[in-house]
Amino acid sequence: MRQRTTAICGMASVVLAISSLAGCQTFRTVAKPTLFAHELKREQIVLHGDFPLVQHERLVSELCAQRDRLATKLGLPTTDVPIHVYLFDDETKYYDFLAMRFPGFPPRRAIFVESNADFDVGLAVYAYQGDHLAEDLRHEVTHGYLHAALPHLPLWLDEGLAEYFEVGNTHQGLNIAHLNHLNSLTDFLPNLSRLEQLTAAADMTQQDYAESWAWVHFLLESDVDKTDLLTDYFADLQQGATTTLSTQLQKRLAGPELALQEHLQTLK
Q1: Exposure of 254 by Cβ count < 10 A (0-12 exposed, 13-18 middle, 19+ buried)?
Q2: Is the pTM of this model over 0.85?
């Protein structure tokens, strides 16, 4: 009998609670959650709660609209794969549940779970009501949309895109916490090839997440639009290609690292 496993991505508070980090690990699954008596379904999003969910109708609508924004911005196909969001009213109950269901996993404000085919939840997010709920759900649901459309996304790009979209649709992906962190570094030298070697989120630092966001913002929002680099790369991945985005950037730009640093200077 094949052992069930679950890939988990989650966000955690960092210094001064001004940004968040994500992590992915593999765990055995246990029984499907049965604590949630309330449900709110809109398109691909299925929100489950252990409390009435009427107050979150607007947030669910925003998460649904985010699917079309990702598809338009990234040139990715939309899917109808359900993303189940399990929301706790109480922080303590949430962490108790994580300790029971995913023993040994570090505490996170919210986590994304992608299970293998023999587990019926599929794509799921777990979170609790708190000051960062909208940001957390935008981040984790982005993982859901991406994994539904493009299962083999490199770790750095998966996280960079989630950090880009977590800020909402009115900020053009500008993640101030990451920008401030990079600006605070006196010896920051971007290195996309290094990021591409990372395969475990446990190995990613705050700087890695910030740089991942920076590369995504550079590709999507710099003066000379480079979105086609991403869309072409996604198409390659869907065809099973093993090329790297850094290779494509080197073909387009003489010095992509310098171009990224110059782009960050325009954001100050």
Answers
A1: exposed
A2: yes
